[in-house]
C-alpha cells in the first residue's frame, strides 16, 4: 500500500475514534429548579430563636436571646429596621452583644454598638414615680427586604426583687412544627433543697407577620 494511502487511512481512523468518544460523553445535567419556600408569602420568618436562662441561688441570673429573622416585606423592614428592647434599670442591665445584617450572598454588615441609644421607656416618661423601665434602641445598618437580621441580647439581674427566689415566664409561638420538651432536676449543692427545672427547645419557629 502506498505511504500516502496508509496516512489517509490512519487519519480517518483517528477522526472515527474521536467522534465515537465524543458521542459517549453524557450531556451536562440541567440545573435543578429552585423550590419556592413554603413561607414565601409571609411578611417575615423567624429562622432561629433561642432563649437561654440562668439563675443563681440568691436570685441573680441572666437571660440571653439570640435570634435570626428573615425579612420578606416592607412592613417587616419597618418593624425590624429599628430594634427596641426594654429593661428595668434599677434591678438589671441589658447588654447588646451584636446586631448585624446578613445579605443573600452571605455578606455580613455589622451595626456599630456605638449607635445604641439608651432611653426612658414611654411608661417611665408618663409615670416616672412607679417604674424605672428603660429601652435600648438600635437601627440595623444596611437592612433591606430579602436580608436576614441577627442579634444577641443579654439581660443580667443585678439586684433581685425577691432575694433567694427566681422565676421566669415566656410566650411560645402559635406555630412551632417541631417542638420538644424535656424535664430534668438539679441541685443547689450540699445543705440546700433541690430545684426542679423544666427546659423547652424549639427547632424551628415561624411567626406570622
What does this protein structure show overall?
By secondary structure, the chain is α+β, with helices and mostly antiparallel strands. 16% of the residues lie in helices and 39% in strands. It has a domain of 118 residues: Immunoglobulin-like. The longest helix is centred in the N-terminal third of the chain and has 21 residues. 10% of the residues are buried.
Which topology of the domain at 44-161 does CATH recognise? Immunoglobulin-like
Total strands: the figure is 10
Elements, N to C (H/E):
HEEHEEEEHEEEE
CATH architecture identity of the domain at 44-161: Sandwich
User: Which residues sit in consecutive blocks of at least 5 with pLDDT less than 50?
Assistant: 8-18, 20-26, 174-192, 204-209
Number of helices: 3
* Rg from Cα: 30 Å
N-to-C span: 85 Å
Under CATH at level 1, the class of the domain at 44-161 stands as Mainly Beta
Report the biggest beta sheet as strand number plus sense, adding barrel if it closes.
5 strands, antiparallel
Indicate the structural class: alpha+beta
Strand line-up in the sheet with most strands: 1-2-8-4-5
Amino acid at each position: 500500500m502506498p505511504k500516502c494511502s496508509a496516512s489517509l487511512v490512519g487519519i480517518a481512523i483517528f477522526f472515527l475514534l474521536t467522534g465515537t468518544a465524543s458521542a459517549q460523553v453524557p450531556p451536562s445535567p440541567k440545573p435543578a429548579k429552585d423550590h419556592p419556600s413554603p413561607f414565601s408569602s409571609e411578611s417575615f420568618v423567624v429562622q432561629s430563636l433561642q432563649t437561654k436562662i440562668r439563675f443563681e441561688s440568691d436570685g441573680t441570673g441572666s437571660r440571653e436571646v439570640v435570634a435570626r429573622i428573615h425579612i420578606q416585606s416592607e412592613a417587616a423592614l419597618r418593624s425590624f429596621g429599628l430594634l427596641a428592647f426594654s429593661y428595668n434599670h434599677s434591678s438589671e442591665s441589658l447588654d447588646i452583644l451584636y446586631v448585624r445584617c446578613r445579605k443573600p450572598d452571605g455578606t455580613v454588615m455589622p451595626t456599630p454598638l456605638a449607635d445604641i441609644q439608651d432611653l426612658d421607656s414611654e411608661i417611665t416618661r408618663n409615670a416616672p414615680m412607679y417604674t424605672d423601665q428603660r429601652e435600648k434602641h438600635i437601627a440595623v445598618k444596611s437592612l433591606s427586604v430579602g436580608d436576614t437580621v441577627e442579634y444577641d441580647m443579654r439581660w443580667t439581674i443585678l439586684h433581685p426583687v425577691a432575694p433567694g427566689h427566681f422565676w421566669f415566664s415566656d410566650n411560645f409561638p402559635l406555630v412551632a412544627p417541631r417542638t420538644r420538651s424535656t424535664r430534668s432536676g438539679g441541685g443547689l449543692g450540699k445543705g440546700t433543697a433541690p430545684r426542679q427545672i423544666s427546659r423547652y427547645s424549639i427547632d424551628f419557629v415561624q411567626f406570622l407577620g
